[in-house]
Amino acid sequence: MKAEVVSTGTELLLGETLNTSTHYLTGKLSSLGIEVDYHTTVGDNPERLEQVLRQAIERSDLIVTTGGLGPTIDDLTKELVAKVLDLKMEIDSASLEQIKQFFGRRKAPMPSSNEKQAFFPTGSKILPNPIGTAPGALITKDNKTIVILPGPPFEMQPMFDNYVWPELEQVIGLHAERMNERVLKVFGMGESAIEKVLYDLMNLPNLTMALLAKRAEMHIRLVARSTEIMSGEANKALDQVEEEIRRRLGNKVFGRDQETMVSIVGRTLNNKNLTISTAESCTGGLLGAALTQEPGSSKFYLGGVVSYSNSLKQGLLGVSEKNLKAFGAVSEEVAKEMAFGIRSKTGSDLAISTTGIAGPDGGSDEKPVGLVYIGFATAKGVHAEKFQFYGERESVRQLTVQAALNGVRLIC
Amino acid sequence: MKAEVVSTGTELLLGETLNTSTHYLTGKLSSLGIEVDYHTTVGDNPERLEQVLRQAIERSDLIVTTGGLGPTIDDLTKELVAKVLDLKMEIDSASLEQIKQFFGRRKAPMPSSNEKQAFFPTGSKILPNPIGTAPGALITKDNKTIVILPGPPFEMQPMFDNYVWPELEQVIGLHAERMNERVLKVFGMGESAIEKVLYDLMNLPNLTMALLAKRAEMHIRLVARSTEIMSGEANKALDQVEEEIRRRLGNKVFGRDQETMVSIVGRTLNNKNLTISTAESCTGGLLGAALTQEPGSSKFYLGGVVSYSNSLKQGLLGVSEKNLKAFGAVSEEVAKEMAFGIRSKTGSDLAISTTGIAGPDGGSDEKPVGLVYIGFATAKGVHAEKFQFYGERESVRQLTVQAALNGVRLIC
Questions:
Q1: With contacts defined as CB-CB under 8 Å, which chain B residues touch A215?
Q2: What's the maximum distance between 2 C-alpha atoms anywhere in chain B?
Q3: B57: part of which helix (H) or strand (E)?
Q4: Chain B neighbors of A13, CB-CB under 8 A
Q5: Count of alpha carbons within 13 Å of B32, Cβ hemisphere only?
Q6: Residue A37 and residue A156: Cα distance in Å, rounded?
Q7: Is B356 an interface residue toward A (CB < 8 Å)?
Q8: Chain B contact for A18, CB < 8 A?
Q9: Coiled-coil segments, which residues (chains A, B) (predicted)?
Q10: What is the pLDDT of residue B226?
Q11: Which residue in A317, A262, A287, A295 sits closest to B282, CA to CA?
Q12: Beta-carbon separation of A289 and B285 below 8 A
């Protein structure tokens, strides 16, 4: 089953409103195994909307529309769907009653323009809207299914979840092909390097692989299509490929699916009953913020120091003036002293430190923008790693956080 | 001039990635007065992408594409644009050199697959990409303009702003109607409260006003349409309305257009030669991270302590055990002690502290999730403010940061 999401609304075409509805619907349809081939957005313009609907119905099996169900004259989605499918518009008296009650609860008479919201293409299954005045509709004709939903996300989403999802599940059934998806997450290798290593795995039968570059990590997305009853087979195929990828990329693969670097580090620290503290310079607090992003982080994260100035590096962390003078704040020696210092102050099992040049200013030939030292202190001793990152200030900071967390992952 | 935004990328059609690029481009094109009639999204599928490009070029004057410029075999936007426009692909040696240098800086040889990124349809104006390896292109043929941009927003946005915007400004000229836009930013008032106060200003002739709720602030967007040569008039109208809004909302308006809470606080501290330090509990480092977001922050931000555990509140900040026991870590007394403590340790002019219940767990009837105390210490003394925020953990944390910065703004 191939689907298209059609959204209408002038606010979308003015850049005022971010199209989160299309994103929401696409995610839901994908997890049902429905292939979404197109998103189309068009304003409240009858000619263009009609043409878009005509094309969508021609090229897709399932069309989900959002928007254009309001009471005003430029809200025309239902009317144009009826026109394109050659259906009449009919009043649904139950819907009319509900709209009247909606206004009744607000002690206001129903404006006559709202009557329009109770009309639907003949043969529609009405989708109730407990939140607003615009019911939706589901229409099937000539093997095409059209789902008509309101625009506001807080009306659209519950309508989809409560009424459309169960219908689609039935339509799809056990014998339709669904997508069995898996995402492997990689740190410390670029897109081309991964492609080179996995090249021969990228075109396997019945399994697709795609590489997605995220800000501070790469995602390898594997998809195996199968029917619900054959999903065991598909999962076995995914297991095999995952195993092979992990064999080739080793510990560069840090997680899978919903796992994030932070969640993995947190889980590992929790499982091993380890505590951690941080001494941050160039990341300015981002590392602590990352470690405390998920609930329950107070179990392993004690806290730390943001020693943005050299005086705080000395005063709060005990970094020596000698090393600051001899090597500068961005140096292996200072990174080590910072990690050692915060571990001593907090008594944590592990400690991490960051010091670097986030840019855009402050770089030199010897110490360019993006140069970062990350220090690690444990009961066994102290060491620091040197990194050279590229990109804007915020990228350098995010990459530093990710590299620091990755270092913790590899130590534990 | 009628425009269409075409985005390609399988991740968009799987619901993995929210299409912020289309939103960004649409907003920019709209403010240039260019009418965006369609958004179309299609996956990395050559047949469908070709068909979408063909249709876009037929029905629109300006087509802006994002995505499909990567080094892998399924990245085909430039190649398909060339096919549809009946142009050859040619190598651009300057781009090739830059891509080689990109890898050179990383001490890695350029993979041969990246060579593809230096090929463009004949006659392209090349748009440099200082951040990644995918340059963009601008092509004009038969009165149609096609702008080809990379997918990742952090590469696409600066390319559009630096190279495409000036080109489009020239094409559009002085006599087209543009949108003169102004955004006023408000903290500490909700949508309905603002609407109530500004109701009579919302339907002025020649000027539209829209309220947009952001995560931790409200935006009031004012638009006056005029030609470039009449923009003086439009700006005068905007000035008048802005003045009236500021009169009614007072210091709830914290900034305008590109100004952010952080940039305003940083500028104020710099101008007044004041230094600041932070003591964070529930924000876990986010406040320091916000203060160090922009370059030059080391002039005013000394650093601070993330005292996530009570022992660090005592050990590093000198919070008294008595108050921790009597009032708990989330209390006015502890917030005050934290701010006082970090100011003493760092010798900064100002100090701010945060302590609260970010959730989702840890709340009680007496101290519900979202309860936050923010402490302020100056030479004149110490005080703390109580807030009750609502929303998810991340919202509570972001709102706390924003309220803390807003407090600094109002103190200075």
A1: 154
A2: 79
A3: helix B46-59
A4: 26, 30, 35-39
A5: 24
A6: 21
A7: no
A8: yes
A9: none
A10: 83
A11: A295
A12: yes
Q: Are residues A224 and A340 in the same domain?
A: no
A48 inside 8 A of chain B by CB: yes
Phi-psi label, residue B284: left if phi above 0, alpha if psi -120 to 50, beta otherwise: left
Contacts across the A-B interface (CB distance below 8 Å): 262
Mutation target for A interface from B2, B14, B280: give the one with most A CBs within 10 A: B14
Q: Which of B41, B154, B280 sits opposite A392 (nearest CB)?
A: B154
Distance CA B326, CA A251 (A): 48
Full domain range(s) for residue B201? 177-256
pLDDT in 10s for each residue of chain B, 412 residues = 899 999 999 889 988 889 999 999 999 998 888 999 999 999 989 999 999 999 999 999 999 999 999 998 889 999 999 999 999 999 999 999 999 998 888 888 888 889 999 999 999 999 999 888 999 999 999 999 999 999 999 899 999 999 999 999 888 776 677 788 899 999 998 877 888 899 899 878 888 888 877 778 899 989 888 877 778 888 999 999 999 999 999 999 999 998 999 999 999 999 999 999 999 999 999 999 999 999 999 999 999 999 999 999 999 999 999 999 999 999 999 999 999 999 999 999 999 999 999 999 999 999 999 999 999 999 999 999 999 998 789 989 999 999 999 999 999 9
> In chain B, which residue's Cα lies nearest the Cα of A42?
B38
Same domain, A30 and A134: yes
Task: Say yes or no for a CB contact (<8 Å) between A27 and B11.
Answer: no
Residues A286 and A340 in one domain: yes
Is some CB atom of chain A closer than 8 A to the CB atom of B233? no
Residue A340 to residue A334: CA distance in whole angstroms:
10
ipTM: 0.79
At A203 the pLDDT is 80
Tokens 């590096």 sit on residue:
A313
Final residue before a domain boundary, out of A121, A147, A172: A172
Q: Which of B40, B44, B294 sits opposite A38 (nearest CB)?
A: B40
Are B324 and B218 contained in the same domain?
Answer: no
Q: What is the CATH number of the domain that holds A188?
A: 3.30.70.2860
Cis peptide preceding B109, ω within 30 of 0: no
A293 touches B: beta carbon within 8 Å: yes
Q: Does A212 touch chain B (CB under 8 A)?
A: yes
Residue A180, number of CB atoms within 10 A of its CB: 20
Residues B250 and B379 in one domain: no
pLDDT in the model for residue A392 = 87
Tell me if chain A has a CB within 8 Å of the CB of B18: yes
One domain, residues B121 and B248: no
For chain A, say whether B199 makes contact (Cβ under 8 Å): no
Phi, psi (deg, nearest 5) at residue B301? -100, 115
